[in-house]
C-alpha cells in the first residue's frame, strides 16, 4: 500500500478500528483511482520499483509516490468514505495534486 492504514485513520479522524476492513478496501480503491488517473504504475518506494523491474515487469513511466501523490490518495479516500453511496467525480484538489505527474497524453 502507498498510504498506511494508520495514516488513513488519522486523515479520516477515526479513533477505533471497527471500520478497518472497510477503510482498507476504500484505501486500496483510492490508490487504484489515483494510478488510473496518472495512467502510470505507482510504487511505495524505490526498492519496490526496483523489485518490480528485477522481476521482469515492463513499466511505462513508473512513479514512486511522494507527498503529493499520498495527499491526493488521502483526499480520494476521504471522498469515498464520506460519500459511501455515491463516489462521484475525482475530488478537484486530488486532481490538482496528481496533474503534475499525469502521463502526457493521458
Quick take:
With 106 residues, the protein is mainly alpha-helical.
Report the strand count: 2
Number of helices: 5
Rounded to the nearest angstrom, the radius of gyration is 14 Å
**Mean pLDDT rating:** 92
Query: How are strands sequenced across the largest beta sheet?
Result: 1-2
Major sheet description = 2 strands, parallel
User: Low-confidence parts, pLDDT < 50 over ≥5 residues?
Assistant: none
| Helix-strand string | HHEHEHH
- Inertia-based shape: globular
Helix share bin: 55-70%
Structural class: mainly alpha
Instruction: Report the sheet-strand fraction.
Output: under 5%
* C-alpha termini separation: 24 Å
Query: How many domains, as an integer?
Result: 1
Q: Can you tag this structure with a few keywords?
A:
single chain; 106 residues; mainly alpha; 5 helices
Overview of the molecule:
With 106 residues, this protein is mostly helical. The chain has one domain. The protein contains five helices and two strands. α3 (46-54) links the parallel β1 (42-43) and β2 (63-64). The longest helix is centred in the N-terminal third of the chain and has 19 residues, at 20-38. The chain is globular and about 40 Å long.
